[in-house]
Amino acid sequence: MENVQQQVAFVSTELSERDLQILQFERQWWKYAGAKEAAIKELFDMSATRYYQVLNALIDNPAALAADPMLIKRLRRLRSQRQRTRQARRLGVDV
Predict the structure, then answer these.
(1) pLDDT at 55 exceeding the cut of 50
(2) Rounded to the nearest 5 degrees, what angle is found at the Cα of 33, between the Cα atoms of 72 and 90?
(3) What are phi and psi for residue 30, nearest 5 degrees?
(4) What average pLDDT does the chain have?
(5) Count of other CB atoms within 10 angstroms of residue 15
(6) Are 43 and 21 in contact (CB under 8 A)?
(7) Whole-model pTM?
(8) Number of other residues whose CB lies within 10 A of the CB of residue 64
(9) Residue 58: how many CB atoms within 10 A of its CB?
(10) Is the model's pLDDT at 6 over the cut of 50?
(11) What sign does the dihedral 20-17-59-32 (CA atoms) show?
């Protein structure tokens, strides 16, 4: 088990150029959702769905936390809020 943890830690210690660009992109504030999705397609040549999959993996990467702790903590907090809201909606509870 310890060997697997060491391998995971080794793999996640470096951020790619794309990862750094995504972090820079996420520092921006978007007034309209459509504008962000269009920019994602143009800058990263991927669908918004794929971008958010990559972003979620990046948010969990310790190297990203080390690179920009305030941004990663904010993104984690927003993700947690969205998860709680979805869960509450499924259970029929007001949040």
Answers:
(1) yes
(2) 75
(3) -115, 130
(4) 86
(5) 18
(6) yes
(7) 0.75
(8) 22
(9) 23
(10) no
(11) positive
Q: Which residue has the tokens 């994602």?
A: 40
Question: Can you tell me which residue has the tokens 């999959």?
Answer: 53
The reported pLDDT for the residue numbered 14 is 84
Whether residue 11 contacts residue 52, with contact meaning beta carbons closer than 8 Å, is answered with: no
Amino acid present at 52: Y
The candidate with the shortest Cα–Cα distance to 67, out of 7, 29, 21, 30, is 21
The runs of H, that is alpha helices, within 2-67 are: 2-11, 17-26, 33-44, 48-59, 62-67
User: What residue type is assigned to position 17 of the chain?
Assistant: E
Give the other-Cβ count within 10 Å of 74's Cβ: 14
Instruction: Give φ, ψ of 13 to 5 degrees.
Output: -80, -20
